[in-house]
């Protein structure tokens, strides 16, 4: 039987493809998990409608991500941290610390979206990447300053 895949299925095919499968595989695996539907004209229409809607939603998400990127680029971030003699920190600045600093400035960013290329263990400016969306990555500079004792 021919089915239309509504999602990528490992070893079978990618989303939107028409593939031939056994009836039992369709009935017992693909259909209960909403991974596929019989290849009928109505199912094709429904798939096209879903695809169009997901493309529109993706465009909106990218636009929102670019807007956040533009807002976040121009903001100066100072991050107080305890430091010893010289410029060395006690410990390191983590993505959680950066997320809290961003939150104080009014930006809600999950710590999992923050990429610190090199461990921040000294006072001074450091580059940090924020993966806002798969297509949008903002680079900000965090200025690590000596915290008051």
List keywords for this structure.
9 strands, alpha+beta, 4-stranded mixed sheet, 3-stranded antiparallel sheet, 149 residues, elongated
Characterise the protein shown here.
The strands form 3 sheets. Strands 4-9-8-6 form a 4-stranded mixed sheet. The model has no long low-confidence stretch (mean pLDDT 89). It has helices at residues 23-30, 41-73, 95-104; strands at 2-5, 18-20, 36-38, 77-81, 88-93, 114-115, 120-122, 124-133, 136-146. The protein is α+β, with helices and mostly antiparallel strands and 149 residues long.
Strand content: 25-35%
Query: How would you sum up the global shape?
Result: elongated
Order of strands across the main sheet: 4-9-8-6
Poorly predicted segments: none
Oligomer: single chain
According to DSSP, the number of beta strands is: 9
